[in-house]
């Protein structure tokens, strides 16, 4: 009854397609699925879903959710629309360039799909507190940043209160790069979380500073020289804006001059922009696939109309359509959901500074600017400035002078809402 | 500014300082995709004309992902008016206000808003009408995409497009509820720019004369320590391999012990412990005992009938392969032309650039030899690209849509090799046969029994359906006419992606049927 009577915007036949899978269970549907009006009422009148990101994936996610019958959708995005978004972010037009993505996307969806309420927030996910995240049944992430995903993941894991089943918010995460992408379902504390799989990320290309400064060989080395060394030297405190064509133009000229000096070919405007902005190729089709996979999982979880993904779907579209669906295993020593501390064997001669470098680079840790402490003392703190200054002398000390073998070191970083505990042993 | 099309000598081109202006608005708009398929791919897209049959949610989802990257033209062929059901699941209709209007016209109008540079056209004729009165019209398109067409007209369309080579490839898309499948009907598809993940061999085991001479005459002994630690590993390996061969009857290291010994000669050559170029040489030592040869897939290409019976009118691809075959037979290295692309390695600028020049010069010479084997004129750009990708060329031969269902033995074989994929394919084929017999006007309500007997009829007598068929057919019975938004969106992405690969002739499209299960969330090829 409920689904028939709600909202003046519903017209007879509107949910003809969707209702076929909501009126009847399928062979692989959970026996607890209550086909019919109850599930429709939950989907259309009660479910509240949060979408993180209103970009390439976000635009697709919002449209899919609206069409499948979610009516109370919230979206967070801190970006404004750029012309290079228009080849895939299909809710935006030329006239929208410069406006906030979240707001424009929300308005478009509400205008196109009657009766759907999309509440935009133009800002950062970190602006919101636990109470805010607690109000949603599900969270879908369509982000291009590892940091933001780690933050969201840790926040949702921390939110889980074993006494309160409502506090477990399934997180569905999508990501794309060119013709490749992945979609996964994370049930915080129950399944493997985003942090558990950090070592699956590709290592970002980093060029050693001595190559850039002394022995450039590739056009990329010349571009890095222009942006990392020449910009601060020549422009002083002026902040580099990689979206400003004049800044890119300057970097391009400087890089091309250096390349010409060293007989290196291949510095172009496009490469310059690609290197300094760390541009990842992105197309509408891959985003459509991954966003659809994410929304399909959200729909199945919200309605129980079919089993959901357990728990990782990976797609490679360069050679045919290749995909791999598998269960990513939870890590007992995951700093976010594992509970156990991470064993780390280091040389007794390793200094605190070297340990910090290791933490930044280690594939399963990757913490930028970590602060270290033990239960009794501060080893090195990145902030505030007074504490940084007072702990700075420790950087040169050996870790073994400060921490006994088997001792615990707590690692924190301002970008991450969790701490990592290391159990230090000496080789 | 010198004319960009002139082949400038290295000196001029490398001393040219930044002259490129900031990119125009079109380049900025397409920046993120140009990094995948470059201007050549974009030009191919912009010259393409796509026909999509029916304005269903799946059809408009596919088109959305083709209009955004900038195809030249699309037509939606659909005589239907928008129903309330259509207005509920299709993003390219405006809810209740579209009801009763032409589905093709509404969809074309709303898809058109995505990209001003794309021309869209609504055609309200039926496919049946076109097949009878205007078949020629179909040859105007680069590719035809058909979603959930009735079996009869679909077979007629597939036969027409298959039997006359002047007609375009056909993409057949079928879906019901959480299950879907699509197939690309083409005779032949060739790819030069397959964008392989592996690089071409540096041919360290078969060093070209200038590289050998440079490597063996370089005065390592009298080099200062800094220079010594900046000699590219390629040169170290070529030199040590040459020395090794002299004392081993001309053979490279082959046994485990010999390989270990060879690595020791690398370590012995160091002037100090931490020379990174020597560490690299050790890590890359396998290149000395890995024989560079023509990859087996390329060797297979050489035996293709189109290559063996080459005529002046053969497509350029086969002329190029024929010339490649001759190159590998007649050129001293007996392998593919040398690559001009050197990966980055520990070295100082001077020695790296010098090595790069050696490779480039030699690559140019080998390209000239390759070119001399060509029997028809082919553009330099194409030759460059062909030589660069000669280790990763691709030739796909396809079959007519329906060939699998017409071949009971092949279906029976798939029961063992791909039961999950086959189960979904058979369930969708059964639905299609069932629908063809269904009387218009009454609701379509297939039973499991009816669909099972349709599927069974395709298999050889006495063959059991795959175990997974029960799950697949159950889903079809549950939602026989559901064009679910998420399924439509996913098909929209994956079909558009394959169409882009077909049009640009870059990357490798599917060969066969791609089956999709959105319950367990997997895709597979049948």
UniProtKB/TrEMBL annotation, chain A:
Tell me a Gene Ontology molecular-function term this record carries.
Answer: ATP binding
Q: What class of enzyme is it?
A: ligase
Q: Which UniProt keywords apply?
A: ATP-binding, Ligase, Nucleotide-binding, Ubl conjugation pathway
Which GO terms of the cellular component aspect does the record hold?
A: cytoplasm; nucleus
Give the protein's recorded name.
Answer: NEDD8-activating enzyme E1 catalytic subunit
Q: Pfam families annotated for this entry?
A: E2_bind, ThiF
GO BP: protein neddylation
TrEMBL record, chain B:
Ranked from the top, the taxonomy reads: Eukaryota, Fungi, Dikarya, Basidiomycota, Agaricomycotina
From the UniProt record, list the coiled-coil ranges.
Answer: none
Q: Tell me where the transmembrane regions lie.
A: none
- PANTHER family named in the record: NEDD8-ACTIVATING ENZYME E1 REGULATORY SUBUNIT (PTHR10953:SF29), UBIQUITIN-ACTIVATING ENZYME E1 (PTHR10953)
Q: Name one GO molecular function term.
A: NEDD8 activating enzyme activity
Q: What is this protein called?
A: NEDD8-activating enzyme E1 regulatory subunit
Q: Which parts of this chain are annotated as the region Disordered?
A: 1-25
The organism's place on the tree of life at top rank? Eukaryota
Task: Provide this UniProt record's keywords sorted from A to Z.
Answer: Ubl conjugation pathway
What pathway does this protein act in?
A: Protein modification; protein neddylation
UniProt biased composition (Low complexity) = 12-22
Ranges where the THIF-type NAD/FAD binding fold domain occurs: 30-145
Q: Name one Pfam family in it.
A: ThiF
Q: What does this protein do?
A: Regulatory subunit of the dimeric UBA3-ULA1 E1 enzyme.
Family assignment from sequence similarity: Belongs to the ubiquitin-activating E1 family. ULA1 subfamily.
This entry carries the following GO cellular component terms, namely: cytoplasm
* Any Gene Ontology biological process: protein neddylation
Bias category Basic and acidic residues: which stretches?
A: 1-11
């Amino acid at each position: 009854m409920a689904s028939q009577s709600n909202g003046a915007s519903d017209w007879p036949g509107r949910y003809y397609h969707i209702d076929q899978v909501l009126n009847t269970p399928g062979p692989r549907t959970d026996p607890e699925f209550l086909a019919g009006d109850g599930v429709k009422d939950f989907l259309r009148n009660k479910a509240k879903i949060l979408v993180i990101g209103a970009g390439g994936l976000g635009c697709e996610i919002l449209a899919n959710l609206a069409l499948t019958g979610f009516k109370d959708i919230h979206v967070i995005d801190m970006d404004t629309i750029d012309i290079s978004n228009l080849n895939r972010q299909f809710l935006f037009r030329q006239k929208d360039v410069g406006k906030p993505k979240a707001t424009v996307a929300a308005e478009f969806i509400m205008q196109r799909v009657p009766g759907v309420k999309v509440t935009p927030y133009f800002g950062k996910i970190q602006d919101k507190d636990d109470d805010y995240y607690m109000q949603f049944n599900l969270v879908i992430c369509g982000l291009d940043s590892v940091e933001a995903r780690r933050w969201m993941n840790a926040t949702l894991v921390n939110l889980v209160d074993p006494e309160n089943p409502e506090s477990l918010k399934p997180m569905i995460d999508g990501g794309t790069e060119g013709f490749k992408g992945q979609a996964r379902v994370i049930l915080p504390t129950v399944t493997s979380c985003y942090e558990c799989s950090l070592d699956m990320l590709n290592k970002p290309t980093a060029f050693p500073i001595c190559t850039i400064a002394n022995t450039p060989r590739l056009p990329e080395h010349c571009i890095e020289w222009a942006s990392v060394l020449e910009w601060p030297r020549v422009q002083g405190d002026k902040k580099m804006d990689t979206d400003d064509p004049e800044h890119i133009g300057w970097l391009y000229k400087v890089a091309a001059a250096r390349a010409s000096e060293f007989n290196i070919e291949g510095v172009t405007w496009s490469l310059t922009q690609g290197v300094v902005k760390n541009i990842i190729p992105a197309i509408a089709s891959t985003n459509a696939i991954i966003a659809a996979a994410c929304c399909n999982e959200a729909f199945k979880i919200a309605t129980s109309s079919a089993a959901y993904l357990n728990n990782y779907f990976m797609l490679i579209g360069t050679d045919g359509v290749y995909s791999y669906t598998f269960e990513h295993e939870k890590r007992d020593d995951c700093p976010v959901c594992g509970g156990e501390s991470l064993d780390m064997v280091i040389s007794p001669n390793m200094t605190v500074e070297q340990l910090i470098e290791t933490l930044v680079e280690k594939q399963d840790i990757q913490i930028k600017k970590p602060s270290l402490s033990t239960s009794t003392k501060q080893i090195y703190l990145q902030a505030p400035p007074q504490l940084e200054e007072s702990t700075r002398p420790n950087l040169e000390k050996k870790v073994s002078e400060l921490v006994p073998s088997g001792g615990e070191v707590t690692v924190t970083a301002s970008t991450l809402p969790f701490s990592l505990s290391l159990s230090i042993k000496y080789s | 500014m010198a004319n960009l099309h002139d082949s400038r000598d290295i000196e001029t081109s490398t001393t040219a300082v930044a002259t490129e202006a900031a990119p125009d608005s079109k380049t900025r708009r397409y920046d993120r995709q140009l990094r995948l398929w470059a201007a050549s791919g974009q030009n191919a897209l912009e010259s393409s004309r796509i026909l999509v049959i029916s304005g269903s949610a799946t059809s408009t989802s596919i088109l959305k992902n083709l209009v955004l990257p900038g195809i030249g033209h699309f037509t939606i062929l659909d005589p239907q008016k928008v129903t309330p059901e259509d207005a509920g699941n299709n993003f390219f209709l405006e809810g209740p206000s579209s009801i009763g209007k032409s589905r093709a016209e509404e969809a074309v109008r709303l898809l058109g808003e995505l990209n001003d540079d794309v021309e869209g056209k609504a055609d309200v004729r039926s496919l049946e009408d076109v097949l009878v009165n205007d078949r020629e019209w179909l040859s105007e398109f680069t590719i035809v995409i058909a979603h959930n067409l009735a079996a009869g007209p679909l077979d007629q369309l597939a036969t027409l497009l298959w039997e006359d080579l002047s007609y375009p490839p056909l993409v057949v898309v079928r879906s019901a509820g959480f299950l879907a499948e699509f197939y690309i009907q083409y005779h032949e598809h060739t790819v030069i720019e397959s964008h392989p993940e592996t690089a071409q061999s540096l041919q360290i085991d078969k060093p070209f004369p200038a590289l050998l001479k440079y490597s063996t005459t370089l005065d390592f002994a009298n080099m200062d320590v800094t220079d010594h630690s900046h000699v590219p590993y390629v040169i170290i390996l070529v030199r040590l391999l040459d020395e090794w061969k002299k004392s081993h009857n001309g053979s490279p290291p082959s046994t485990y012990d010999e390989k270990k010994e060879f690595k020791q000669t690398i370590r012995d050559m160091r002037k100090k412990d931490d020379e990174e170029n020597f560490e690299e040489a050790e890590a890359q030592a396998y290149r000395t005992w890995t024989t560079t040869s023509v990859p087996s897939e390329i060797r297979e290409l050489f035996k293709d009938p189109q290559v063996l019976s080459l005529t002046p009118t053969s497509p350029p691809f086969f002329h190029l392969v024929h010339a490649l075959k001759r190159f590998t037979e007649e050129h001293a290295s007996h392998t593919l032309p040398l690559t001009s692309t050197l990966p980055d390695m520990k070295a100082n600028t001077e020695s790296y650039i010098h090595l790069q020049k050696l490779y480039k010069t030699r690559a140019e010479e080998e390209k000239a030899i390759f070119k001399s084997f060509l029997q028809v004129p082919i553009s330099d750009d194409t030759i460059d690209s062909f030589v660069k990708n000669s280790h990763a060329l691709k030739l796909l031969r396809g079959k007519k849509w329906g060939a699998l269902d017409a071949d009971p033995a092949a279906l029976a074989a798939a029961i063992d090799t791909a039961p999950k994929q086959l189960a979904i394919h058979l369930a969708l084929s059964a639905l299609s046969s069932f629908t063809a017999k269904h009387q218009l006007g009454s609701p379509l309500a297939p039973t499991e029994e009816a669909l099972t007997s349709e599927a069974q009829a395709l298999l050889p007598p006495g063959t059991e359906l795959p175990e997974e068929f029960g799950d697949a057919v159950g889903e079809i019975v549950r939602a026989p006419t559901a064009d679910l938004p998420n399924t439509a969106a996913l098909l929209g992405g994956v079909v558009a992606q394959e169409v882009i690969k077909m049009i640009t002739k870059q990357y490798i499209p599917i060969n066969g049927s791609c089956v999709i299960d959105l319950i367990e969330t997997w895709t597979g090829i049948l």
